[in-house]
Amino acid sequence: MKKIALMMTLVAGSSAAQDTLFDKGVKFGGFGGPAAKYYNIEGEDLFVVGGKGGLLFGSERHEFTFGGAGYSGATSFDSQYSFAGLLLGYAYNTDAVVHPELELAIGSAYIYTELNEDEEVGEFGQFVDLTLSAEVNLLSFLRSGVGIGYHHSNIDAFNSSNPSGWHLGVDFEFGGM
Predict the structure, then answer these.
(1) Would you give the DSSP letter of residue 12?
(2) Ramachandran bin of 118, using left for φ above 0, alpha for ψ from -120 to 50, beta for the remaining angles
(3) DSSP string covering 101-148
(4) What is the distance of C-alpha 49 from the center of its chain?
(5) What count of Cα atoms within 13 Å lies in the side-chain half-sphere of residue 16?
(6) Which residues does 5 contact at the CB level (< 8 Å), separation at least 6?
(7) What is the average pLDDT value for the chain, to the nearest integer?
(8) End-to-end alpha-carbon separation of the chain, Å?
(9) pTM above 0.85, yes or no
(10) What domains are there in the chain, each with its CATH number?
(11) 59 falls in which pLDDT band (50, 70, 90)?
(12) What's the whole-number mean pLDDT along residues 63-86?
């Protein structure tokens, strides 16, 4: 009988200290702001600028994002690349001054290339973009992140190559939970 009582005490005691995903209720908020990314695709530089925003929800330690993002940029060889879509994200321990954030964007992409004065070509496709960032709480309503990621697109008209590759990015997020 003493063994059963001891086991129940240990089990009850360990579950009280357990960290859970939504340990103190769910909080909601939102954010929006500018973002920029740099790519080097087969020796060609591509800078894209745009924005992202969405709904934030989670607890004190875990924050999830459900929103959207869109970017557009030009290359040195008369091509315009744009992409926009759904943004999903996760940030851990957002109360810390510096904390990690993982974002996945998935959606539609478009590339427009001017071949010469009389000829232009455009192509639609899809993209997937995964970014890991270190985010800094600058003010109570402003965060900035610097990250690295990989962008994949199924478009093949980008100067005879595909606009897929590694990127560096920076963003500013206004808002919060």
Answers:
(1) H
(2) alpha
(3) EEEEEEEEEEEEEEEETTEEEEEEEEEEEEEEEEEEEEETTEEEEEEE
(4) 14
(5) 6
(6) none
(7) 85
(8) 49
(9) no
(10) 26-176 (2.40.160.20)
(11) confident
(12) 89
